[in-house]
Amino acid sequence: MEIIVIGAGVGGLAVARVLLAAGHRVRVFEQAPARRTGGKALLVWSNGNAVLNDLGVSLDGVGSRIDRIDALTSDGRLRTSMNIAHAAGRYGFETKAIPRRHLLERLADGLQDGIVRYGMACRSLSQDDRGVTVTFDDGSAARGDLLVGADGHHSVVRRHLWGDGAVQPTTFGTWQGLSPIDIGITDTTRHLMITGREGACGLMPAGDGLLQWWFDVRWSPADPRPAAPLAELRRRFGHWASPVPEVLAAATEDDLEFFGHHWVRVRQAWGRGRVTLVGDAAHIMPPTLGQGANQTLEDAWVLGRELATGDGDPAARLRANEKARYPHISLVSRLARRNPANWRIPPLIGRLFPETSQTAMLARFSNRLTAPALQPL
Ligand SMILES: Cc1cc2nc3c(=O)[nH]c(=O)nc-3n(C[C@H](O)[C@H](O)[C@H](O)COP(=O)(O)OP(=O)(O)OC[C@H]3O[C@@H](n4cnc5c(N)ncnc54)[C@H](O)[C@@H]3O)c2cc1C
User: Fold this and answer.
1) 178 touches ligand 1 (CB under 6 Å)
2) Given the DSSP bridges, would you call strands 41-44 and 190-196 parallel, antiparallel or unpaired?
3) Which domains does the chain have, with CATH numbers?
4) How far is the CA of 151 from the centre of ligand 1 (A)?
5) Does the structure show a pLDDT above 90 at 39?
6) pLDDT digit string (tens) for 201-230?
């Protein structure tokens, strides 16, 4: 089949790889003039890494492995500790923190020239019984048998399918940075998640001496942007236990980037006719569980299996794919709505349950988030 993909982010590039491997002709149209080189780091969990491995994408040599997540109180007491390396052992794939640009580079590596066309912003689309036509801002058009909308948060394809107003802001936002801050964990495989009354702070090594750090704070779209956001973060979190003050002291305003969290209620059938969605276009969620990109990779992988042969009614197969993804995506999405600032597990729990039990709980929880065919036996 001739398949059009809108967007060359994590989802669009992964979809291109799986559908090319299945023997389809694929063209990806991306609005940006070139591949994105900015962005902070993402956590690629074992489930995402398993998909990447199946697509022939290796994360060797980039980012940092994450073997342990320690949840702390704002005064430095351990709430709970999870042995991620053990869970990774069950899946066979490690969890890594990796700057987004490296993930995009690795996903695009090996795609033939001309498959991704940059500077092509999709403006509108229409479909009939035989195919889909898309028009671009420059007035040109393209036609294919199927169209996959991988165009993220502000998806034009989702608006075509669902209309306006589906995406809602939540009550939290993230100030984040990726910078060469050495606070003792930057060269380790340990990720810290610290929560308190003022919000949440996450710290994780991302390779090459870089630390990914973020602060989740209450937020509403009506809030004015603070004139001096770093000073505001220092005022709010500066009294937390080490290493939070050290991170805030080393950070600069130039490092800071803000994201308001958004959420969409996932639909059981999120496409229509010969058009479907993957990734944030279908199920944008807050970054709470670090699963957005991982679930996007799973979307691509499951779609590839559904379209692995050219048989059957294409529209029915797209709906079958959405039906297969729905239970996992809707669970992950509902859980991600709960910000970690609200999950203040009492330190006593960490002392009552041995680390092995906490790790086993994590493995069971991870299985529930993962497409059945990707779960360990
Ligand atoms: C602060 C923050 C931290 C996060 N941390 C994690 C994490 O640790 N782990 C994790 O798994 N996920 C994380 N996520 C979520 C993750 O970034 C997304 O879920 C993931 O990028 C979704 O991929 P996508 O391909 O659907 O969308 P995107 O990666 O946003 O790609 C969409 C692409 O479509 C293009 N596009 C948009 N409109 C058009 C158009 N009209 N025409 C053509 N092209 C268009 C865009 O330019 C872009 O290249 C985080 C998100 C945020 C905001």
Assistant:
1) no
2) unpaired
3) 2-168+262-374 (3.50.50.60)
4) 8
5) no
6) 999 999 999 999 999 999 999 999 899 999
